[in-house]
Structures are given as structure tokens and as C-alpha cells.
Amino acid sequence: MTFDLVIVGAGLVGSSLALALQGSGFSVALVEPRPPAPLPRDETWDVRVYAISPGSAAFLDAGGAWARLDRERLCPVTEMEVFGDGGRSRLHFSAYDAGIPELAFIVESRQLQAAIWEALETREDLDRFCPANCAELEFGRDAATLRLEDGRTLQAKLVVGADGADSWVRAQAEIAASPRPYGQMGVVANFSTSIPHGGVARQWFREDGVLALLPLPGDQVSMVWSAWNEKASELLALEPLALCAAIHEATGGAAGELNLLTPAAAFPLRLLRPKTCIGPRLALIGDAAHNVHPLAGQGVNLGFGDARELATVLRERGVQPDCGHRSLLRRYERSRREDVLAMQLTTDGLQKLFNNKDPVLRELRNWGLGLTDRLGPLKNFLTRTALG
Q1: Average model confidence (pLDDT) across the chain
Q2: Least crowded by CB within 10 Å, which of 32, 174, 256, 361?
Q3: What is the pTM of this model?
Q4: CA angle, residues 162, 309, 161, in degrees to nearest 5
């Protein structure tokens, strides 16, 4: 079976690329070992949520996915408060001050995945191989050949690796990628609160990690605590009431009394910088191309940025008929290098700066946080940069 593109990995980023190529004239195959789980029929909340930037929302809307989301399970973020560990420093971001409707949208992972897959049902120039597991991948001069475990063979001008941080595609292409663990885990859970959040996201830089409370519809919040492994293990072992008490204390009671809605879960944090995101007949997107610390909530937005830029490069290829030509892949790589590197350096630098017990650094970082809050133009620049 011959295609223009084969996308390996149909998570949020891989499936968004397939959606963005709708009507492009390309024949596309999407390969995924597991279909998304059906949405539950109860009122439970997904423990994994994302802060989707307005730019990413516009990208998904253009493909017909954003409009399919249940608005009652989506929460706009109109303000953000960031607190240092000095007791007094604070940085405040406001959509109103920046002249925009919202800073971000908090969306459940499973809701977003379901909306994208539902939008993909309208594509006539897409073949989905799901469930399907990859067995072999060879890169030739004129095409790449992907063999599936069931014996089927797919040939394409371009293979896109969107198969996550431990990318099989990246390994087959022998692209070096040495992850650097942070020694931290992202502990996540959802709570109901006695104090309304008012659409405000809050974040605390602490000696034991970075804690964030993200607004959900109603008087509910999603917690993400990027904690050292030992602290994360302690949090995961707590009974519901004890966990609520720990979050209440860590946030200074900002959300009032808490009630656990979903059990705590955790995922390891690491920095990943492959030496390149392209190869012969290959492009990497999303977590296959980069991992960042979640303290800025921009990981999935970087992935959507990859999908959007790759789709744009391919659509605007001009007279070049070969969608896997190196000139196009180089254009994609150059277009993403600056944004990805800037986010990696920023998040990695902040993680190192605030997870440091040096008293001099503590004074400097908290002073810098307060100074940034007083510099309106700088704040507005940071806000618009994060809009995607």
C-alpha cells in the first residue's frame, strides 16, 4: 500500500497533523496500536488535563475538532498568579491587561482526543490502521517502507514519528536522544473546592517542587505537583483526606477546603533533546521530537506547533512534488528550532533556579519575579509569547 505520508502515533499531536492535512491532496495513513478509550458516561473527570493555548485552539478549530468539545467540560483561564518561595514575591498575568479574551483553556486529555478522532471521521483521504503494531521500518532513497506485525506493508514518501517520548520511529532512524531525568514526578489529581477559582490558574514555586492548581468547570481544580521523587511517593501514598490537607497547607488555603475527585497519579519528568528532528524521509513531532518540564504547561502546545508547522510546510511546498524531500524537512526543522529551544531553556532554567537551596539564589529569583510583575511591557510580551 502506497501513501504520501505515514504518521506513526495517533495521540493528540499525530492525529492533529492528520486533521491539518485534510484537503491537501496527500494520501495519509495513520498507524496506532490502541484506539482511544470511549468517553465514560458518568460525570468523572480525567486526571490528565492540558492548558491549551489560544493558538493551539485555533489550529484545532481549523481542522474541525475544537467545536466538537463539550463546552461544559472546558474552562477558560483569564488570570494566572505565580508565587515565589520567598513569601512575598508574586507575578500576575491577566488576559484583560493583555487585551485578549483568555490566556488558555483547561481541557481533559480524553475529551480532546475524542474530539480530534471524531473530526477525523470526515476525512476521505485518510486510512487508519488501528489497532496495528509496527515491526520494521526502512528508509530508502525514494521512499520509506513500514512493515506491520500483521504482515501488511506501507510505503510512503514521508514517515512522521508522533509516537511519544520513547519513540520507536526515532530509534529505527538511529537518531540519538539521551533523556535527562529531573528526579521528579508530575503528581496529578482533581479536587472540588470551597472557594471558587474565578478562572484563575495558580502556581507556587517551592523547595519541594512546583505546584499548580488549574481551574476546571464549576468549583473544581486540577492539581499538577512537579515534586522530587521522594516527595511524589509520599503524596501518592496519602489517604484522600491527608492528601487534601497537604494541598491545602501547601497552597496556603487559596482554594479553601478540598475534596478529592480523582485518585492521584504520577508520571516521570525528563528533558529530551534529540540531535535532530528530521532524517531521510522522516520528521519527528511532539514528544518524539522534544520533552520539556511541565512547569509552563507548554508541552502539548509545542507538539501542536510542530504539527501546524509541518502541515504548513507541506501545503506550501510550491513546485516540489515530493513531500519527503530534504529541502522541505529542513524548512520544517528550521521553523521549529527557535521556539522549541527557547521553551526548553526557559523551563529547564526555571526548574534549576527554583529547585536550588542557595540563599543568595533564593533572594535573586524572588526579586526577579517581583521585578517582572512590575514591568508591564515585559509581562505582556511573555503573555503573548505563550499564546501560541
Answers
A1: 91
A2: 174
A3: 0.92
A4: 15
Contact between 12 and 302 under an 8 Å Cβ cutoff? The reply is no
Q: What percent of the chain has pLDDT over 70?
A: 90
pLDDT in tens, 248-282: 999 999 999 999 999 999 999 999 999 999 999 99
Is the pLDDT at 126 greater than 70, yes or no?
yes
Q: Are the C-beta atoms of residues 190 and 220 closer than 8 Å to each other?
A: yes
- Three-class DSSP labels, the chain: CEEEEEEECCCHHHHHHHHHCCCCCCCEEEECCCCCCCCCCCCCCCCCEEEECHHHHHHHHHCCCHHHCCHHHEEEECEEEEECCCCCCEEEEEHHHHCCCCCEEEEEHHHHHHHHHHHHCCCCCEEEECCCCEEEEEECCCCEEEEECCCCEEEEEEEEECCCCCCHHHHHCCCCCCCEEEEEEEEEEEEEECCCCCCEEEEEEECCEEEEEEEECCCEEEEEEEEEHHHHHHHHHCCHHHHHHHHHHHCCCCCCCEEEEEEEEEEEEEEECCCCCEECCEEECHHHCCECCHHHCCHHHHHHHHHHHHHHHHHCCCCCCCCCCHHHHHHHHHHHHHHHHHHHHHHHHHHHHHCCCCHHHHHHHHHHHHHHHHCHHHHHHHHHHHCC
Digit-coded pLDDT (tens) for 69-101: 999 999 999 999 999 876 677 888 888 888 889
